[in-house]
């Protein structure tokens, strides 16, 4: 069977997702079973994978889905606990004191706080923390999910203390011992390249977040209302990415996102409190009242305006649970501390399922869900809650989690069947590799422009930048070597694309939507995040193309033209919007005496 035919067949499960979930707007609970059946059919009848292997991959998928549901439950429980204790009301007031402008709030919470949490934990935890917090502040559920997905790009390559690089890239490349004698040195070099590419592509991410929010969820459905805060958005972007790049190139891949997010938070919140680059009081942007929202925007998670039983809670006490989440995540992820070993000491493992060679395992204590539940219990005592309120928090959290389970128990098994489709009697490689082979055969010297999209496709399928890097890093290195360029930059493009793919990853969207009870609207979210993903992958790929071909083709090459074109378009849109804003004059005041 030809490379092109195998690539097309490998694409069919993804086409099913695109048609039913994104195109026909079916809920994931209906679309993903079809995609699962397509993947199973291909594995059994085309790749000729033994039925035991397909069943084992499906069971592994169910185990992974269970771990995701555990994380979702913990995140929802923490939010409901804070709601019942009155903490959310105090936090909401605190953000109003910084700025009542929703554009400013979403940048601080999604971009900066989300980057810090991503650096500390990964696992999609930023969406599980930032998305419900935004809903708690009064954001529509869908607006919160879209924001949470778009920022799942720049910080992701260095999430979970560098796991996508240290585990994903290093594991992928180490399959070929002829590449180097020291993979850690090579991977550290690639991490620096990844950070540079992310800084370039990530510069506009905060602006994308606010522009998408005002366009899809604002009264006037206007991109320009979001673009008006471009100065603050760029300031917040660089406040995170400058320390991020420095740390990646000086200290390595463990701490760029964590340090970048933390430094960015300190700088931006301090500046915002002093009014730096903040919107004028008469230009504060907010959503319309909730009664006028499109019903599609709202989830089943309802935030009630509950005050603390004393009538007043300090800001320090209200924020303490989120501070504890960040602290515990950092302490339990650092290899230099004993907590990591303790948290990973208990492993539940199902080895060699059905004699297939597939093993499924998870570490209950290490999962972020355990941190969320622990902090929820601490919050019960810290905030002096009553038993009835805490009981309501648990009951509501169970109901919301169960509603998300249907979509995930088909989404993740489909992914596992897709990833474990190699080794069949037909002799074909696993579906993701056959798909990448087909693209590489068509791309030739233009491969750098496509490498980010392959990385993104891997994350879209697997729901993980780490897994995408494991699958494709060696493949990308080999293609780079074959076309005669610095292969480390091609691997860096893979890692960047794999991070950007989290914006559109089905099971990440399902999980983030489930946290706020937005079940069945996953396709609508992905349609809104497709363009930011395309921008991110294209710009990073163009810059990468320019870098790897600079020595042979000079500065004036296709990659440079595309990258400059994107930059010029961005400047033009910002400048045009700024000029229009300046032309809008305030209404003339009426002289009451002369009017009489």
Sequence of strands across the biggest β-sheet? 1-2
Kindly, what is the distance between the CA atoms of the first and last residues, rounded to a whole number of angstroms? 88 Å
* Beta-strand content bin: under 5%
Total beta strand runs: 2
Q: Counting H and I runs of at least 4 residues, what is the number of helices?
A: 25
- Elements, N to C (H/E): HHHHHHHHHHHHHHHEEHHHHHHHHHH
Helix content: over 70%
Q: Quickly give the structural class.
A: mainly alpha
As residue ranges, the low-confidence spans are 588-596
Evaluate the radius of gyration: 24 Å
Taken from the alpha-carbon principal axes, the silhouette is globular
Family: Belongs to the lactate permease family.
InterPro entries: Lactate_perm (IPR003804)
Keywords: Cell membrane, Membrane, Transmembrane, Transmembrane helix, Transport
Protein name: L-lactate permease
Question: Would you mind describing this structure in some detail?
Answer:
Belongs to the lactate permease family. InterPro entries: Lactate_perm (IPR003804). With 596 residues, the chain is an all-alpha fold. Helix content is 71%, strand content 1%. The chain has helices at residues 3-23, 28-45, 51-85, 87-98, 102-120, 125-136, 141-150, 159-173, 183-202, 205-217, 223-227, 230-250, 256-273, 315-331, 339-343, 368-382, 387-419, 431-443, 447-462, 465-482, 487-500, 506-515, 522-553, 558-583, 592-595, and strands at 348-350, 360-362. A two-stranded antiparallel sheet has the order 1-2. Helix 7 packs across helix 22 and helix 18 (431-443) runs antiparallel to helix 19 (447-462). The chain starts with a helix and ends with a helix.
